[in-house]
Specification:
Radius of gyration: 20 Å
Shape: globular
Structural class: mainly alpha
Strand content: under 5%
Distance between the termini: 68 Å
Largest sheet: 2 strands, antiparallel
Strand order of the largest sheet: 1-2
Length: 316
């Protein structure tokens, strides 16, 4: 395996959980709810998915259980944000800490376990293509599904009636109601879907990527995924670019360690997050992204006290 193949393989493996988290949170944000709790959903999905997989050796049960674990955190987020009208950002961070505590407690018995039997699937002929064959066509089943997930999300959001209704809930809920649909139910579905996708992304990390469980193994990927939704300008097909930029940064981190390049590991650990910050900085100075109206209102409500304070200061 040459160096380029190693980098591509690590890039795809590292970007796959992000693809799931981005696609899920993008649906949630399109409905008008920012699901920053995808971090907690990913963490619960990683823990539950690995635990079920270690005891049952059944990939279907593992993925389904991981999705349910992600939905559990998302359900709390939906209840707090939609029904209780709590600040969606503050409540999400609290839920992330809750998930961290729950997985640390219930995952103690999993720390010493290893998982096996979930091998990668090589696609005949395609996996023999030089350089990209082994990197792209010798992956796990969840990775293959992530290749088509953004396309499916794009089709549903922009080519179906349901997608139009969901987007209207994030733009103008009154219009959604006028057409006979319930914005609350639509937003609940979108947030729960985001949690399920994040849970599956977490399961891919623990079952296929690392093949073990460790406390807080998601390590901020869910929060980064929520930020990358902005980088994508809420367009599903850009999920590939955003997720694999993050994956490339992780791949370089691993590559430098393998090649024993004299760079501090603490610096290479910052690569994925630095890449994300730089990309967000670039997009923020370019054309204004098409933020759903409901998210814009929520952001304005958060900054309103600050603006009032600044206005009073200027008047003085």
């Amino acid at each position: 395996m040459n160096d380029l193949t190693i980098i591509l393989t690590c890039m795809i493996a590292g970007g796959t959980p992000i693809v799931y988290a981005i696609c899920g949170d993008m649906v949630g944000q399109r409905s008008g709810i920012t699901s920053l709790s995808v971090e907690g959903s990913m963490l619960c999905g990683a823990c539950v998915g690995f635990g079920v997989g270690a005891y049952t050796q059944n990939i279907i049960f593992s993925v389904f259980s991981a999705a349910l674990a992600g939905i559990f955190i998302a359900l709390l987020q939906a209840f707090l944000s939609i029904d209780c009208k709590a600040n969606m950002f503050a409540s999400a961070f609290v839920l992330n800490f809750l998930a961290e505590g729950l997985t640390a407690f219930f995952g103690i018995s999993l720390l010493s376990k290893k998982i096996s039997g979930f091998s990668k699937i090589k696609i005949p002929l395609l996996s023999e293509i030089p350089v990209i064959g082994e990197a792209v066509f010798s992956q796990d089943i969840l990775c293959y599904l992530s290749f088509v997930l953004p396309v499916i999300i794009y089709f549903v959001l922009f080519k179906t009636r349901f997608g139009t209704v969901l987007r209207s809930a994030g733009e103008n809920p009154d219009v959604t109601t006028a057409y006979g649909y319930n914005p609350r139910a639509i937003r609940y579905f979108a947030v729960l879907f985001a949690g399920a996708m994040a849970g599956i992304g977490g399961a891919q990390m623990s079952i296929f990527y690392t093949m073990n469980w460790s406390n807080n193994m998601v390590n901020g990927r869910g929060v980064v995924a929520s930020a990358l939704v902005v980088l994508c300008s809420w367009k599903p097909l850009r999920s590939y670019m955003a997720a694999y930029i993050f994956g490339l940064a992780q791949a370089l981190q691993v590559f430098f360690q393998i090649k024993e390049i004299p760079i501090s590991p603490y610096i290479t650990m910052m690569f994925p997050y630095l890449f994300t910050l730089i990309a967000l900085g670039v997009i923020s100075t370019s054309k204004k992204p098409s933020m759903p109206e409901a998210l814009q209102v929520a952001a304005d409500d958060m900054t309103k006290p600050i603006r009032k304070k600044e206005k009073r200061r200027c008047e003085r």
